[in-house]
Design goal:
Structural class: alpha/beta
Shape: globular
Order of helices and strands: EHEHEHEHEHHEHEHEHHHH
Strand order of the largest sheet: 1-2-3-4-5-6-7-8
Helix content: 40-55%
Strand content: 5-15%
Length: 302
Amino acid sequence: MTDLQNPADQPFGSNLVAMVTPMHPDGTISEPGVANLVDHLLTTGCDGIVVGGTTGESPTLTEAEAARLVRAVAAQSNNRARVVAGIGTYDTAVSIQRAREAEAAGADALLLVCPYYSRPTQAGVVAHCVAVADATELPVMLYDVPARAGIAMEAPTLIELAGHPRIRAVKDAKGDLFEAMSVMARTSLAYYCGIDELNLPYLACGASGVVSVVGNVVADRNAGLIRAVRSGDLHSARAIQGSLIPLVDAIMRTSQGAVMAKAALAELGIIPHATVRLPLVESPPPHLQRLADALATIAVPV
């Protein structure tokens, strides 16, 4: 574990990365690529790895692949970081099965997305999350991402779910800072920023850490950002966040986060290929040039 971690954050870590899933050109999972990427993340200060989340292309992973990924990452990290398995789907029974498989494969915690596409009521969201949390002994981080799920986890829903002993945190990709602060004030839920563009304001408002796509490339700068905020050094925190703007823009505001994070890692030689599975496609040349220009900026010390 890194020196970033506070006791309250131990189930998940503080500086989490939403890890991409390295693949061979034929679209099969590259286990050497997974091992190399995990080593890179640990070396650069990541203390929590989200495996098989959206950035890991979860919609196209089979149940067997998802479990194999958790097993591989857990073995490679060897207790040097928390392994958080993305197990959420729009089917409660499938999510329960994936949760149990992730637990058996060595996951330390679960990431449970709001049920997408089905658009259940808030009562349905609560029932879904409770059923999954009841299925294992692992701590659960809820994933509130209305842009992808089609619905949000509303504040009363989050407050109700906070009463479950294993529901411990929220990855917030909603972007409503006031709501986040309100829920934090009324519960013991640990909040994690799930929007790279807003890492600094979330941390400044009390978030426990980040779950970062851009962290695939710059977990070290995210670590520095968290340390700076925790020590009250907002001048340094703003400098770090400012240094990341070109890269955040290139990865998160062009083709798509998973696509561009893989392109960045391939450009840096950390993974051998930027292969993604359909319906994702690799980035066009203008986006790759924008990425290359942004990567050049991170070589400059903050």
